[in-house]
Design goal:
Helix content: 55-70%
Distance between the termini: 44 Å
Largest sheet: none
Number of helices: 22
Number of strands: 0
Structural class: mainly alpha
């Protein structure tokens, strides 16, 4: 019975995804739309009933609900929304079109999430999930990029006045899936609302994918358990309560991401009064919150944050900066800090978390001060310059948002930003780069003070540094050989931004030839999966209880 149920779940999920792609990707007649709506209603009904059935036949229903509460909550919310939409259709006053569209979109998002979960669950015994972790990581991103690029190439994903191009769709899919933010077109104008929604999903899935794999890797670092993450391993590394399985761990990651993104969206919503209240403002808030927390740097504002309408919205900028910092700290650190605070310091932070926090504060502080000094302008108030310097210091490490044209900065500032982009964020985070812990280990090695961690960590850090330098140099060399219009600094900046999955640009990305753009795509992909895959291969897990074993490289 269980096998039959898994098979049915899989095919209902597949048909639901196909129906959603068709609905948002192609024009359709009223009758076709009604058939689509009927199918989605039947699919949701089926998913709800099979969930209730699984609860009833479970030996421990309470434990089943406890371990699957996220799925249950999604089913409940989706059902409530469908009922509200149905009542609204028969209500004599009706529902405002914008509100009805927002409700329908929310249901579609939930059904897409449900379908994805069910397809993964139905194929959990497949040999695909038994591949070595680096291969699984790379394969998952390749599949995400290919599927995303095909969907972004569909007619309804684009504004009617633009010419469809699969190469543009592929570049956008790579940039969004690798949470980078580089773009060859104006995202705000080139893509429709459906296209923006697909980009949002690619950012979220790309960010959660790397977060999930990285956190799995953190747990494995001290305790070898290839099949499952048993409680002691995760508890030891993350200073959390016991986890019984990888599924529980991923649910916790998803819950934390949704919590911060939800709070960030509310902050942005009330800080973006240049947009009229309503569904458009809500989508604007959600998109930028997800983009910021996942360190993606994508924006659907025409001209980005340099647009005059948002340049003075310091509350909006601060919300973006806070979300970028949180997403760049890593799941383990985010979960340890509240425990540390509640215990009044009695429950200590892991060595890796202490280094992550220290380096984040040091790099942001030093970057702010140096940018402020190097870009000082007597015609602008100190408060405004300090705010801009802080924002660019934060986002240069991995996010890619900018409140001023990057091409207007002087050479010293550009090279400082390249250094921040290359270093990147903390391990097990949504950010890129060689990681702050790697930079910390390299600095400590210069002073021959490495007793706080094993000497082998310095070797790993040097290997990762060499990997990053070779990737950037080779990519820049290829671009320099094919591009005659741009300086070496502009091309190097573009390449470092791609490797660090940052998304900042001096403004030359749309003008690059296809050969250079192909190099950028490869570099973004390497920058996203390369450091973690290499770090996984470097690891020889030990469980000695010594603090020497807890600094994560990559």
């Amino acid at each position: 019975m269980k096998s039959l149920l898994n098979t049915m779940n899989f095919w209902v999920a597949v048909l639901t995804v196909v129906s959603l792609v068709w609905y948002h990707g192609f024009a359709h007649a009223l009758l076709q739309q009604e058939v689509h709506t009927l199918w989605l209603g039947l699919a949701l009904t089926y998913f709800v009933f099979q969930f209730v059935y699984r609860v009833r036949v479970s030996d421990a229903p309470y434990e089943f609900i406890k371990s699957n509460w996220v799925e249950g909550l999604i089913y409940l919310l989706a059902t409530a929304l469908v009922l509200q939409i149905t009542v609204g259709r028969f209500n004599s006053e009706g529902t405002a079109p914008a509100v009805a569209d927002a409700q329908r979109l929310a249901v579609h998002l939930m059904l897409l999430l449900i379908s994805g979960v069910e397809m993964i669950a139905a194929t959990s015994r497949s040999t695909f999930w038994k591949l070595p972790l680096p291969i699984l990581l790379i394969t998952s991103y390749v599949i995400l990029i290919l599927v995303g690029s095909v969907i972004l190439h569909l007619p309804m994903m684009l504004n009617g006045q633009v010419e469809p191009s699969y190469f543009q769709a592929l570049f956008t899919a790579v940039s969004a899936s690798c949470v980078t933010g580089l773009a060859t077109v104006n995202i705000a104008d080139y893509y429709s609302r459906s296209g923006h929604l697909v980009i949002l999903f690619l950012i979220q899935l790309g960010g959660l994918n790397i977060l999930a794999f990285a956190t799995y890797f953190v747990a494995r670092f001290l305790h070898v358990d290839r099949a499952t993450l048993q409680g002691e391993a995760v508890q030891e590394v993350l200073s959390l309560g016991s986890f019984t399985s990888a599924k529980r761990l991923l649910q916790r990651i998803l819950a934390v991401a949704i919590l911060f993104e939800g709070l960030g969206a509310a902050w942005i919503y009330y800080g973006s009064d240049y947009i009229a209240s309503g569904p458009n403002r809500a989508f604007h808030a959600v998109f930028h919150s997800v983009s910021a927390f996942n360190n993606a740097g994508f924006t659907i504002i025409d001209g980005g944050l340099t647009n005059a309408a948002v340049q003075g919205l310091w509350g909006f900028h601060t919300a973006i900066a806070v979300l970028v910092i949180l997403g760049g700290l890593g799941f383990a650190t985010i979960m340890q800090v509240p425990v540390f605070i509640r215990s009044m310091g009695r429950t200590g932070l892991s060595f890796n978390s202490r280094v992550s926090l220290l380096m984040a504060a040091a790099l942001i502080g030093a970057g702010t001060l140096l940018i402020l000094l190097m870009e000082w302008n007597a015609d602008v108030t100190f408060a405004e310059q300090l705010h801009q310097a802080f924002f660019q210091s934060v986002t240069a490490r991995t996010a890619g948002f900018n409140t001023a044209p990057i091409g207007m900065f002087g050479l010293p500032t550009l090279y400082l930003m390249m250094m921040l982009m290359f270093i990147g964020a903390s391990p097990a985070s949504t950010g890129g780069g060689i990681k702050t812990t790697t930079f910390y280990a390299l600095i400590r090695s210069l002073g021959r003070s490495t007793r706080a961690f094993d000497e082998s960590i310095v070797v790993k850090a040097k290997k990762l540094l060499l990997f990053g330098i070779l990737t950037v140099v080779c990519g820049t060399a290829v671009m320099f050989a094919t591009e005659e219009r741009f300086t070496i600094t502009q091309l190097l900046f573009e390449q470092v931004s791609a490797f660090g999955t940052v998304g900042l640009s001096t403004g030359i990305t749309p003008q690059l030839g296809r050969a250079s753009l192909a190099v950028i795509m490869v570099t973004m992909f390497i920058g996203r999966v390369g450091p973690l895959a290499l770090a996984y291969l470097f690891v020889v897990p030990k469980n000695t209880g010594s603090e020497q074993e807890t600094l994560l490289i990559g």
